[in-house]
Amino acid sequence: MIFNTLTIAGVDPSGGAGILADVKTMSALGTYACAVVAALTAQNTKGVSGVQPVAPEFVRQQIDTLFDDVHIDSVKIGMLGQEPVTRMVAERLAYWMPDHIVLDPVMVAKSGDVLLDKPAIATLREALIPLSTVITPNLPEAGVLLGEREADSLKQMYRVAERLRKLMDHHRTVWVMLKGGHLPGNDTVDLLTDGDRMIELPGKRVDTPNTHGTGCTLSAALCALIPGTGDVPQAARLAKTYIETAIARSGELNVGHGHGPVHHFHALWS
Questions:
Q1: Is the sign of the CA dihedral 57, 61, 64, 67 positive or negative?
Q2: What is the pLDDT of residues 142-159, one digit of tens each?
Q3: What is the reported pTM?
Q4: 43, 140, 244, 259: which sits with the fewest CB atoms below 10 Å from its CB?
């Protein structure tokens, strides 16, 4: 069975992050990818030179028109940009209620450019997180969501993951995947918790500058893998293996002069 997946995110013209990266990932992992454009950027591997919001009403029209015709098995949410768009996405997903929602709370690009305005953070926390099946913050994003300093150790990550889970629905089995890539050292341990279980997902850092769009790619992989596996921990392990290999094989590409993209089609291209 081929599942239908949807990304709601921004456009990165260089293809390393955002909707283009999501569609590549979802396609590489065997799902039929759909996309709703929530924001536009002028962006390359070196940075973001401009952001153009999409009108909230047009975001609503895209979502409603798609769901009225296509059964969507799983949704990934990435860059939304502004508070009115964030609120509109939450409102329409609460109406359509897809089975799985993976929320990547995109706030800052790899280059350091801000991709989410401050008023949107509260709406993200109060309206979108409670709808989500999985949220995938990195450590800086987790700090912003909780209004506290960024965790700098695995021990602190445990506490942060537990606090993030309390922001989510208490009546369903839903998950936090807290990414530990910002910790020092060569180990990249992520934590996965549903409030009862705390699962460590170990990994090793790859020595490469090509890390543009890693968060987008991981969350898109989760979105693609959850419907088929029916099991978030299994999907998370597979998604982590996918992104680690995509990073390790990124040197096979020749895209830009900054933080290059990962190799989304590493398993398909010779």
A1: negative
A2: 999 999 999 989 999 999
A3: 0.96
A4: 140
